[in-house]
Every structure is written in C-alpha cells, then in structure tokens.
Amino acid sequence: RERLATILSLLVLTMIALIAGAVFLARRGGSRKQIGLMLVLAMVLAINVGIWTLPDSAGESLLDQKPAEVS
C-alpha cells in the first residue's frame, strides 16, 4: 500500500514536470509536436491517477481495495 502511494506521488511529480517542460518549450519556440506529446502524456498520467484515487458510486477507490492473495 505504501509502495502504491509512492508510485502515485511519482506519477504526479512526473505530470508536473511534463507540463512545466511543455510550457518551457512553448516559450522557447520548441517543436509543437513534442509539446503536444508531452501534454498528452501528462493527461494520460492524470487520468491514471484519477482512476486509482477517485471513489466510485459506492464510495470506494482502487486504493481502498485489499490486494488479491497469490496462491
């Protein structure tokens, strides 16, 4: 569980770095394709973090579920 929290934290930090990098490239006149791909990747990361952390209609998130036992 702690490992998953660490992974989600790293995903959020990566997302922030990608957005900051895209803004930096846009201001310096960088490649539009590279800027767009960085922003798309940041959106994908945001969606993944949202899937894992936002509660469903029952009020539970994927983080709240117990891990399956391996037999």
Number of E-type strands: 0
What general outline do the C-alpha atoms trace?
elongated
Contiguous uncertain segments of 5+ residues: none
Q: How much is the radius of gyration in Å?
A: 16 Å
Number of helices: 2
Structural class of the secondary elements?
mainly alpha
Percent helix, as a range, is 55-70%
Percent in strands: under 5%
Rounded average pLDDT: 88
Q: What gap, in angstroms, lies between the N and C termini?
A: 19 Å
SSE order: HH
Major beta sheet, specifics?
none
Explained architecture:
- The structure is a single chain.
- The protein is mostly helical.
- The longest helix is centred in the N-terminal third of the chain and has 26 residues, at 2-27.
- It is built from 2 helices and no strands.
- α1 runs antiparallel to α2 (32-53).
- The radius of gyration is 16 Å and the shape is elongated.
